[in-house]
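TOKENISED FOLD:
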Amino acid sequence: MNKDILKLAIPNILTNLTVPLLGMVDMHLMGYQDSSVFMGAVALGGVIFNFVYWGFAFLRMSLSGMAAQAFGRDSKKDMAMMLFRGLFLAMSAGLLLLLLQKGVVSLSLNILEGSQEVKALAADYFYVRIWAAPLAISLMVINGWFLGMQNAIYPMIISITINAVNILSSFFFVKVLGMKVEGVALGSVIANIVGFALSIALFLKKYRYILSEFSFKDILDKTGLLSFLNVSSDIFLRTLCIIVVFTFFTSKSAGTGDLILAANSALLQFLFLFSYFLDGFAYAAEALVGKFTGSRNIKEVKRTVKYLFAWGAFFALVFIGIYGIGGKYILMLFTNQPDVMNTAQTYLPWLIILPITGFSSFIWDGIYIGATASRLMRNTMLLATVIFFLLFYSMKESIGNHALWLAMNCFMLGRGLFQSVFYKKLGIFKQ
């Protein structure tokens, strides 16, 4: 079992780690400008894209579990329909976003807190990066489908390529051409074009036979589409809770001042680094639990869960050690501004304990997605979100910015605890 888990987890870890690495590079490029407003602008612009992209991440998650179950049943028709329906929805959503881009950025910046200078720069960032939306959302679908096919290598190749191109492009535009927020945004657009072209080439190399199952009529089949959207809608609401929490977190940071926004944005990279690492095991859970659920092998589902939690706990302890010993030096990767560094170090202890409060939530997410237990997953996330807001509003007056980090840790812990309680209610145990 460990071999099967690592076969899927290691490529996904390598894939995922390129994502926070990209965020770190963007933060570094803006953190070494002559003002903290550039860090804040990229952070605020990134929040808007959390709405845009995380809002459609439900397509990847629902498709991954459903495709894995189709793989477990060895149903080529279902495998094909999962991919084609997902791509149809992804492209449609991306084109709609392009049409509505001015309304999206206007509404977002009216809701979010922050200085006018930061908001103006965030808008500049958004109007460049949004042109990658159809391809970026489609890539979520393609990578989710590959994972459902028990193929973690292709998403790794695609993600590493995308982020390598993005990093190199961003450095060129910012360091060579002297661009600022528009430079890192343009790097994202170019990288997504390259990544989408590569994903099509890899699909044709190994899965060309799926094309014979293509039928536009079947893609729009009411029963199949509603079944796909039923699972997707629950995962969408679950994802929306995450978007609300992280958007609120950044917005309240911005409302406190540009300095707190810059410091909290740098510290969030610690959370993202850990989460993307643990998501490698979550993706392994999606593929394996999905496969065993599709073949109705309850014994292997239980065995998979046991081994996944052992790996999760081990790496939680590893990250506590890394952040505890090297947290100060990691912060230096993001900024050379002494006031930002000093402020961030005040709140660093919250990030040191976060791996132990948060690891179980990532592992459970993969298990629930693989079992397509979307409703239970949605309900546990709603409960954890309520806890986040209750804690923040009850503590903000007494401990200030510490209340945000306390609420975030309890949000992560609550997700894991609630999912542990509902575990035995997963559909696989009722078959």
Q: What stands out?
A: DSSP finds 16 helices and no strands in the chain. The two ends are 23 Å apart (CA to CA). The chain has a mean pLDDT of 82.
